[in-house]
Amino acid sequence: MPLFHNQSIALERAEGTEPIGWILWLMLMFFMVPLVAMLMVTFKRTYSLRKLHFGVTVLFSILNFAHLVADLLVQPIAWHQIVLMSFLFFVGIVLNIVSFQWLREGRLHSLLAQGHPAGG
């Protein structure tokens, strides 16, 4: 749940506040995209899906880093949010590395399946 900096999120449109429904929809999409990607790679492991998976992990790392920087600019700094976003950014970098390795492994298997030598 985002830190709305003293804004109530109990109601989508509370008296005297700005509507936040669009933020809640964006949050839903932000959480659903990686879950759908995980489901997709669980059932199908094609090379094109591996490329998409790698792209999603890179995109989410960039977005998490941007969120971390934005949280550092808010005064007063909410240190629990900084710790959370730092952790998520670190996990994202690890996922980037693993996803890249998985992408390369898929490329090798794809080449072998097409009859190319292992070194090529």
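The above is record 1. Record 2 follows with the same two-line structure.
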Amino acid sequence: MCVTVTTINRQKGEINGSSRVMSKTRIILYYFSIFLSRGIREMNVDAQPQFNQVTKELMEKVNPEHPEEILKQLENFDVLMMRYESAIREVRTKLEILNDELALTRDSSPISSIISRRKKPASIYKKLIRQGNEITLDSIKENLNDVAGVRVICAFIDDIYKVAKMLVQQDDVVLIEVKDYINNPKPNGYRSYHMIVEIPVFFSNEKCPMRVEVQIRTVAMDFWASLEHRMKYKKGLSDEVVNQITADLKGCADTIAETDRRMLAIRDRINNLEKQDIIDRMKTRRANMPDHMKMYN
């Protein structure tokens, strides 16, 4: 392990005790606050305001207004985030080199675009709490595989699998996990190809294995996923409207999947026609050659 410091810098905040105690206390408070909020309905109406206030105070301790400050109090947190950023650059570079190479041997590049992001500290904190994990650097590395993320957008479905295969075939890339949501889409219609890969990142005095989530999808899949993400976080919609929108999005996902398949079939047909045209022209050229030259062709 290249990052082992997991103590709390008490000079920067008001957190007392070890990080282990801090995280377990927050988890206990979290579930206790849920228990209280659910039990309020059974209480006397006059007692509800007091219990509401207690629950609110507990939730504020578990989910502070600026949770990223909790993580920033961990020594070397900024170093760990820098290493995730470095891992993203490593994966991006590998993909860009592969795309440049394939562009020379094919009519077009298989990768349309590459997007990357590092998970925000607030999201890291909330996910650790939600999973019941400790708030430490080791916990982040061991339990979160999506802190560093790279999204690859391809034109056609078969490009997705080609790019994924070429990436993991490199001898310094370790494949940790695969989730194929193209052949096995989610119930809501989501389609994409997910991989967790581990790569070595070299620094001035050490080599660190870092994990990166790589999502590969077509332009159409990415378009649908972006819209679905926006719809999912709309507030103030009734259950009836949400259910209708969900059903419509599922229908759109199926239509987009069929479009992807048809576009792939059209491309293959065009490629086959071009190959056949080349063969026919070569045959015509040979047929028009003088007999004494045909023996050399």
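The longest helix spans residues 239-287.
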